[in-house]
Structure formats: C-alpha cells, structure tokens
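Module 6 notes. Inverse folding takes a fixed backbone as the condition and produces residue identities as the prediction. Think of it as a translation problem where the source language is geometry and the target language is the twenty amino acids. Below is one complete input and output pair. Work through it position by position during the lab.
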C-alpha cells in the first residue's frame, strides 16, 4: 500500500496481473497452436499485436466497469439511463480495436508472407469474423476482470473495517479494565495508610511502576511476556502487603522471545484475590501459576472462597471476567481455552459422583496431586486459561 497525500493507492494484486497476462496470451497462443503450429516466426508478431491491444482492453475494463456499477457521477449526470451509454461505449471500443487490427494487418501484408500467413492477415470475411469474435471475447473477459478487481477491493475494505472495529473494541474493553484495576489498587493503598503501615511507600512505588506500564506499554499491540509478568508481580506484591494469606506466584518455562497482548491475565488474578480475601475464617490462599511450553501459555489461578456454588456461578459473569472473555474472543477467537471450575467442600464430601466428575475434569489441568487434592477438598474457585503462542 502506497500513500499519496494521505490517500491510499493500492497496487494491482498479483492475481489480477496474472489474469491480464492470460487474457493477452489467449488469442495469440490459440491461433499460433491451431493455425501456425509449424511456423514459429509468426508467433512473436501475434504476441506483439496482443500486447499493443492490452492497454485498450484495460481502459475499456475500467470505463465499462464504472458505467455498469454506476460509480461514475459524471456519467450519471449526463446519462440518466445508462443503457444507451453502455451500448455506445461498447460499440466505440469495438470499432477502435477493429480499426487498429485492420491497420496492423494492412501493414503486415506489405511484407513477404507464406500462403498461410497471407490468408490469415488478408482482409477477407473469415479474417473479419475471426477478429470480431476474439474482440468480443476479450471485451467480455475485460469486464469480468473488473468485477474480480472490484470484489477484491470490497473484501479488503471489509477486512480493514473489521480490523478498525476490533481495534476500537479492544481500546474500549481495556479502558473499562484499567479504571477497575486502579480503583482496587488505590483501595489497597488507602487501607495501608489507615493502618499507618510502613509498607505504604513501597506500595506507592509499585503503583508507579504499574502506572508506567498501563500508560506506556498497554498502548502497544503486543509486548514481551516478561513485561506482563513484571506487572503481575507488582500487583501481587501490593496484595501481599495488604492481606495475610498464602499467596504464591510461580512462572514455569522459558519466557524470553514470547510476545502477548497486554492486560490479558490481570482480571482473572484480581478475581482470585477478590474471592480468596472475601471471608474471615480459615486460612485464605491463592496459587497462581504461569506455565510456558508446547507452543502454549497456561495461566492457572486457584483460590479459596467462602461462597457457595450459586454465588460462585454469579461471580463467573462478573464485569472483570466478562470483559476478559470479550478480549479473548477478539484476540484469540480460535486459539484459547478458558475453563472456570467451582468446588464446594461440603458437597464434594457427600457426593461421590460430583467428586469423580470433578477429578476427571481437573486431572489434565492440574496433574500435581497436591494441588488437585487442595481443589477437591476445599471450597475453591479455579481458572485455567490456555493461549496458543509463538516466539518472536
């Protein structure tokens, strides 16, 4: 795509160029093979004539195509009914092409020719009929090529509009997520200041790092995974200072060379903290694992919860998770797997069928026996997000 005064000028696609070459070669190759299979010296002449006529057919394609699609305002202002204009235009180009062919053939007849060549170029009824036929065929193919180009342009336009629409949807969704995250972080700082905690300055520093990330990094289409991990670590450290809980964040596998869309994980992690810290009894915990390997990126969030299954089900459709689902549909429409699983301590002990079904579902996601035992024997809310990734 080239630009002239900020207006896009599209180059002809390779497929269209190929079609025009085929059109230019159709007549000379057919006549050479059928009429002059043993006279190769005439082949370049036929190719030259076709090459000289090609620009005329290209111009006819553009002009006739515009008339047929009523895209030319000048034509419409003069011809209220385009049919007479189309007929007149076709006849005009037909006569121009025939006049040119006959003039070239008259010139060729002045050179020494064989009997077959003289018969081919002689201005006789068979010659005129043959050239009229080929002219009509090429004119029809020229119009067909215009519609092929038009369909290609419309497809590109639709793709560009879809891409632009996706871009603004992503901007909107991220604008919804950022204030939600910052509001919760500021609440954490406020809580520490009320407690007059010495940890408050460190939290402010980490929040500054987070703000730098949100302002400068999130505007990029993709960022290194390491930057997203650093962002997550800062958020987790802020939560650690605020809460007394078993909080673990583990990164497994090599993360270098992997790029990912920013802000794709935080809502699931934030949701885990919200569930884990939303009760006062027992020992709250949240285990976060980010695993890289086998061409995919897996985020596992396991957290304690005091909510029953009905309350957990409502939280699945919360604002943060709903926005993240929308982001995933836009960014990874066919290459992500999101699995949210709820367990309830009392029910898992009394229902063998539920325990068996939960175990079968969880074994592939959490092969570690200790983690699986924690999920099945406590009230937990688990999230497993798998993304297909590629290294830069």
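Target side of the pair, the amino acids:
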């Amino acid at each position: 795509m080239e630009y002239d005064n900020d207006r896009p000028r599209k180059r002809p696609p390779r497929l269209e160029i190929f079609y025009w070459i085929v059109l230019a070669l159709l007549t000379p190759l057919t006549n050479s093979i059928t009429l002059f299979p043993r006279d190769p010296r005439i082949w370049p002449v036929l190719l030259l004539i076709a090459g000289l006529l090609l620009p005329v057919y290209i111009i006819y394609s553009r002009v006739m195509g515009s008339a047929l699609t009523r895209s030319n305002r000048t034509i419409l202002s003069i011809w209220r009914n385009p049919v007479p204009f189309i007929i007149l235009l076709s006849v005009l180009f037909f006569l121009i092409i025939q006049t040119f062919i006959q003039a070239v053939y008259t010139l060729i007849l002045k050179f020494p020719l064989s009997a077959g060549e003289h018969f081919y170029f002689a201005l006789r009824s068979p010659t005129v009929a043959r050239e009229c036929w080929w002219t009509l065929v090429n004119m029809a193919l020229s119009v067909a090529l215009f519609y092929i180009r038009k369909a290609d342009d419309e497809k590109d336009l639709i793709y560009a509009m879809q891409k632009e629409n996706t871009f603004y949807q992503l901007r909107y969704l991220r604008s919804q997520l950022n204030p939600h995250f910052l509001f919760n972080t500021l609440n954490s700082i406020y809580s520490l200041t009320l407690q007059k905690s010495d940890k408050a300055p460190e939290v402010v520093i980490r929040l500054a790092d987070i703000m730098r990330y949100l302002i400068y990094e999130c505007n990029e289409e993709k960022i290194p995974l390491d930057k997203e991990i650093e962002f997550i670590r800062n958020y987790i450290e802020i939560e650690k200072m605020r809460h007394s809980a078993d909080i673990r964040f583990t990164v497994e596998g090599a993360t270098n060379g992997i790029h990912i869309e920013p802000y794709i994980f935080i809502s699931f992690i934030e949701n885990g903290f919200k569930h884990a810290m939303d009760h006062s009894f027992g020992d709250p915990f949240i285990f976060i694992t980010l695993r890289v390997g086998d061409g995919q990126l897996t985020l596992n969030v396991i957290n304690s919860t005091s909510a029953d299954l009905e309350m957990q089900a409502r939280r699945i459709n919360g604002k943060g998770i709903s926005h993240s689902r929308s982001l995933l549909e836009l960014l990874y429409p066919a290459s992500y797997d999101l699995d949210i699983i709820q367990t309830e301590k009392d029910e898992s002990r009394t229902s063998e069928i539920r325990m068996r079904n939960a175990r079968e579902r969880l074994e592939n996601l959490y092969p570690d026996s200790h983690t699986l035992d924690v999920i099945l024997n406590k009230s937990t809310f688990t999230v497993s997000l798998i993304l297909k990734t590629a290294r830069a």
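Reference fact for the lab report: The domain at 245-388 is CATH 3.30.565.10 (Heat Shock Protein 90).
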